[in-house]
Amino acid sequence: MFQAFEWNIPADQQHWKRLKEAVPKLKAIGVDNIWLPPGCKAQSAEGNGYDIYDLYDLGEFDQKGGKSTKWGPKEDLIELCKAAKENGIGVYWDAVLNHKAGADKTERCRVVEVDENDRNKETSEPYEIEG
């Protein structure tokens, strides 16, 4: 498996294209799977995908300052996946679905504190926070 991302990749919206171009070389050296970064729309154009704004926007909708994600537009992602499939390379998606730091607004919600060794054991009364 080839991990196709790291923290300092340029935010030039060309990553999906670069990977598509690399697919034949990856196949030639025996790579049978590629591991893609979280490609959802992030809080900013430079977001690595762990600051999710919209799980369903893979670089398709004009929001948060543009259409593309850091990695590129949805069309380029689809082309990358097609090229991988044509070359017998599987695609894995790095999904961290509980990372929701990219929201536009916050809201009040009730929470309780829990024991650090037993999350089923409440250690406080319910109270409100802004989250």
TrEMBL record:
Q: Which GO terms describe its biological process?
A: carbohydrate metabolic process
Q: Mind telling me which InterPro entries this protein's record contains? A: GH, GH13_cat_dom
Glycosyl hydrolase family 13 catalytic domain span: 21-103
Similarity annotation: Belongs to the glycosyl hydrolase 13 family.
This chain belongs to the protein called Alpha-amylase
